Amino acid sequence: MRFILCSLAVLGLAACDASIPDSNPGVGFDSYADQRQKQAARDVALAGQGQPLAAPMAVSEEQLGYTSTNSATSYGTEETEAERLAAATAAALNSGEQPIDATPLNPAPQVALGPSGISTENDFEDVSTLRSIESDAQKIEQNRAQYEVVQPTDLPTRPGNTGPNIVNYALSTTNPVGQQMYSRFAASEGRAKRNCAKYMSPDQAQAAFLQKGGPQKDRLGVDPDGDGYACSWNPAPFRKVSGG
């Protein structure tokens, strides 16, 4: 009984409540049609035209098919370019000649060989047409006429002031290098090496040695062993040339 009385009281209050007019629902509560109309009016105002801007085109959701024509064209272009590059490379490497086929079934290339016959100079038949016995005899006579025998003459005399002649000295001696022929006092090998270093060659040392009284006197100290030869000078080459 108490529950029924409470329910009746609530229904009475609801009937007494007046409906509130929907004068301004607020921002964000416009209908979809009103929003489209306002957007169209705004587009017209911005564009300055009497008609609204065209609605954007709808994007199709269909999947694009594979265009085989473009792919085939691109593939053909790449293949043509590759063939052109291959031909240019082959022409540069082979200088216009075709490359050798090195397959096992291909026969070996022919190698150009030179003439295997005898030369023209040794061919009797060929030479006989160019030369004869009479022409050869004539050439021999011409060579004999041009032949000249040079008679030997005396050797030129040496100038008077040339110093000692080491060649004549070498031919006038017979003892080998190292055999003592002259006495030496207080000879020193070290002193001889220092004195020999002053000369450009053993020949110059021997000439100076003879000019200073050698071999009897070793004033320069270049013949410590007393063999008559200064600074390792050797008369053997001069003797060999003269046949001694």
UniProtKB/TrEMBL annotation:
<protein>
    <recommendedName>
        <fullName>Excalibur calcium-binding domain-containing protein</fullName>
    </recommendedName>
</protein>
